[in-house]
Structures are given as structure tokens and as C-alpha cells.
Amino acid sequence: MNSKDYSDIRVELNSNSIFLVKKNSYFILLAMMSLILILTLIFALSMGRYSINFSTIIKVLISKLIDINIDWSITEQQVIESVRMPRILVAGLCGASLALGGSALQGLFRNPLVGPQVIGVSSGAAFGGVIAILLMLPDFYIAIFAFLFGVIALLVAMMIAKSGGGKNVFIISTCRYCYVSIFLHR
């Protein structure tokens, strides 16, 4: 009798299908994605007007952890540490924030296709920014007004969705057109 060991396989039930997943596949996927992220960061550090070799970038990054012999110019080190690394980190944080906000909206409305443009949050935020600009407020207040009007638009969309029982996607997508007509009416 041929017996096989299936202890490392578990069954995942999705809404429409069944998946057989190995238990260590998540670890392998996470490791591969981390490796791709690190290689992308190193590649992004090498791109720019002032070209820097991969080996130099790795040496500069490792020099912060251990003491190694410096065989690169101070200009290369400053370009990596003061110009490119902060830009790459800020771009990554902005992308992660947008992804987190999008997934929060999708979870809140229980709809994988929802986004700030679909429910009118972008129109509300744009309207708030325009009001602050017309009132000639400083730049800081423009961002505050845009944020507050975006939140107000989100709350109105949630109230409209709850009034319809929360089940009708048509009501949520229709409220976007109501926002656009209210906020952009001439």
C-alpha cells in the first residue's frame, strides 16, 4: 500500500473555490517578495543622473553596520544617503499608505472595487482644497481643508449606504455622481 504524508497541506475555502496550500508556501512567498523589494531598492539607488555601481551602493549600506575600508568617494556616499535613500523611503511609505487606505475603504464598504474616486471622497477633498485656495489660506490649511472635506464626503457616503441597508452597491456608486454634481456645479 502506497501511503503519502499530507501533513504539510491544508485546505482553504474561498467564496467560490477550494485551494490546497502548503503550510510553508507563505514563508517562501514572503521571502521571495522581500528579496524582490531589496533588489528593487538597490536598483533604485543606482538610478539617477549620477551613476553609482551596485557594489558601491552595497558597500555604502553595509558600512553603516560594520566597519569596512572606504573605497568610494564622499560624493557617492552623500548622493546615496542624503538624496536617493530619503526619496525612495518616502515613496515606499506613500505607496504603503495608499494601499492601506484603499484596503480600509474596501473593507469598510465590503466591496473590492470601491475606491476614493468611486464613492466621491476625491471630489470632496478637491472641493475642500479649492475652498481653502479661494479663501487664500496658507498651504497647511489647504491640506487640512482637503482632508476634512474628504472625511465629510466619506461619512456622507457611509450614511447613504447605511440608509439603503448597506447592500445596494448602486446607491454607493450613484452617490459619487451626486458629489461631483454638488461639488463641481458652476
Question: What's a concise summary of this model?
Answer:
By secondary structure, this protein is mainly alpha-helical.
Oligomer: single chain
The run of helices and strands is EEHHHHHHH
What level of helicity do the residues show?
55-70%
Structural class: mainly alpha
Query: In total, how many beta strands?
Result: 2
Query: Number of helix segments?
Result: 7
Overview of this structure, please?
By secondary structure, the chain is mainly alpha-helical. Helices cover 68% and strands 5% of the residues. It has seven helices and two strands; from the N terminus they run ββααααααα. The protein has helices spanning 25-46, 54-63, 74-109, 116-119, 121-134, 139-163, 169-183, and strands at residues 9-13, 18-22. Strands 1-2 form a two-stranded antiparallel sheet. Strand 1 and strand 2 form a beta hairpin. The longest helix has 36 residues, at 74-109. The N and C termini lie far apart (80 Å). The mean pLDDT is 78.
